[in-house]
Amino acid sequence: MRVLYAAIDQSVPAAHGGSVHVTSVAEGLSELGHDVHVLAAPGDAPFPAGRATWEALSPPLHNRRFRLLRAGVVTRRARELRSDAVIERYYNFGGEGLLAARRVGALAVLEVNAPVVDHPGSTKQLIDRLLVVQPMKRWREWQCRAADLIVTPSVRILPSDVPPGRVLQTEWGADTVRFHPGAAAAGLLPRRRGETVAIFVGAFRAWHGAIHLVEAIRRLRARGRSDITAVLIGDGPELSRVRRAAEGIGGITFIGALPHTDVPAYLAAADIGVAPFDVTAHPALMQEFYWSPLKVFEYMSSGLPVVAPRIARLATIIGDGREGLLYHPTDPRALADALQELADSPQRAALGAAARARAVEHYSWRSHCEALDRVMRGLLAARDARTPRR
User: Fold this and answer.
1) What is the pLDDT of residues 202-232, one digit of tens each?
2) What is the enclosing helix (H) or strand (E) of 124?
3) Domain of residue 352, CATH code
4) Which range marks the domain in which residue 243 is found?
5) Distance between CA atoms of 275 and 317, rounded to whole angstroms?
6) Do 20 and 46 lie in a common domain?
């Protein structure tokens, strides 16, 4: 199958989940035998040297709100490549991949990892109401209608009238070959004998909750627990605030942003993976935790028990007491309690092993791509049976 992957607002490679996602899906489909061409913005290093073919294409003025203006370029490439399928990452002001697919008669696949439906009081909803005809809502809904297949971790972020037969609900994943318990490098993390290292990897945005890990370490110090330390990896707008909160607390290390290729060794060198999401800091997440959390899958793949808030979606991924511990998100002591319990638990290694096994069985990028492959092949076969392509 010839696949054109339109991800022009994603920089590849880069230290964020979107870059990891695009790379993993492109390479995963290529390994399954597809001829994959990716349109993406150049990142901070050369494009991946894998089986997929990468082409540099950014939104006009490097502003993703103008993505749709690239529809002509995307259509031309889809026609030149004689694409059987065009995959596009959803964005309110996107649609260039969907238009290209319709124009060349290719299968239109829309990846949705953000709400298509508005949460009450959202800015987009208010603007739409002021404009009366609701242009943004109408365009989002058109994108869903134009897609032959929508790939999403949650159907609840889609319009209610999307037919179930056009939806593949599946989680994203981890590279379970690169992320594994044996990836650690000696002396990589600061550690004294007997210490338990909790690690956070991700974007420092308010709803990622990194500051809650710092606050939990502060509570543990007040309890006399100096043996539980924290390592935080990443960058983002909340980093300076989190650093200030950590001042005067021993045992907290900030690594900064890392190339994704370096992350497996750091995770394997830690003892506990922490995903302290704060849905109250992002109203859309209170409606539905729509993320497919990359950090959680990579923690699990690395053999780390995971500590996370007890949120419905996360509870389907992490079994409380089975692959980690889930804490009550509104209890300010709960994260510290969970870290202390895991640090003292003789079952911690068993929880990490169970997390690794679950990631390999259910949450690998390969399993994600295999599911996508099966559904796309089925849709194309059904289409060809109805109307043979010229």
Assistant:
1) 999 999 999 999 999 999 999 999 999 999 9
2) helix 123-130
3) 3.40.50.2000
4) 181-362
5) 12
6) yes
